[in-house]
């Protein structure tokens, strides 16, 4: 995938994830589906970037991409808990947000 497509997919995935989280606060029945659609987009972006950077980047960049992918897997757990009507999804979303914020300052 080209970088522009990945960027657009990331923006759409993040917007859907945020929309699903906000709608879940208002007890909308289909919020978990919107959240999950966004999570799928984010996982695809992280997988592709992990694959691209794994062969070309140095060890530090590969480690950061691995951590970003693991943080994105926390979003998958958040989607699961959202479907189970368990409020643990909020904690998982917060963990993802904090780790992503920390890693965004670690990149070059």
How are the elements arranged and paired?
Blueprint: H1 3-25, H2 31-56, H3 59-83, H4 88-106
Helix pairs in contact: 1-2, 2-3, 3-4
Overall 3D form: globular
- What's the number of structural domains? 1
- Class per helix and strand makeup: mainly alpha
State the separation between the terminal residues, measured CA to CA: 22 Å
Q: Strand portion, in percent?
A: under 5%
| Secondary-structure element pattern, one letter each | HHHH
Strand runs, count: 0
**Low-confidence parts lasting 5 or more residues at pLDDT below 50?**
none
Which whole number gives the mean pLDDT? 90
Report Rg. Answer: 14 Å
Task: Give the helix tally.
Answer: 4
Q: Share of helix among residues?
A: over 70%
Give a short account of the largest sheet. none
Description of the molecule:
- The chain is an all-alpha fold and 108 residues long.
- The protein has one domain (3-106).
- The protein has helices at 3-25, 31-56, 59-83, 88-106.
Give a brief rundown of this model.
The protein is an all-alpha fold. The chain has 4 helices and no strands.
Key attributes of the depicted protein:
108 residues, mainly alpha, 86% helix, globular
């Amino acid at each position: 995938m080209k970088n522009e497509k990945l960027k657009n997919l990331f923006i759409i995935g993040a917007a859907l994830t945020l929309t699903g989280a906000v709608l879940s606060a208002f007890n909308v029945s289909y919020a978990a589906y919107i959240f999950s659609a966004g999570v799928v987009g984010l996982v695809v972006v992280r997988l592709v970037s992990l694959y691209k950077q794994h062969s070309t980047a140095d060890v530090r960049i590969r480690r950061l991409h691995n951590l970003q992918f693991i943080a994105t897997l926390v979003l998958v757990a958040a989607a699961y808990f959202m479907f189970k009507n368990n409020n643990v999804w909020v904690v998982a979303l917060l963990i993802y947000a904090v780790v992503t914020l920390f890693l965004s300052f670690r990149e070059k």
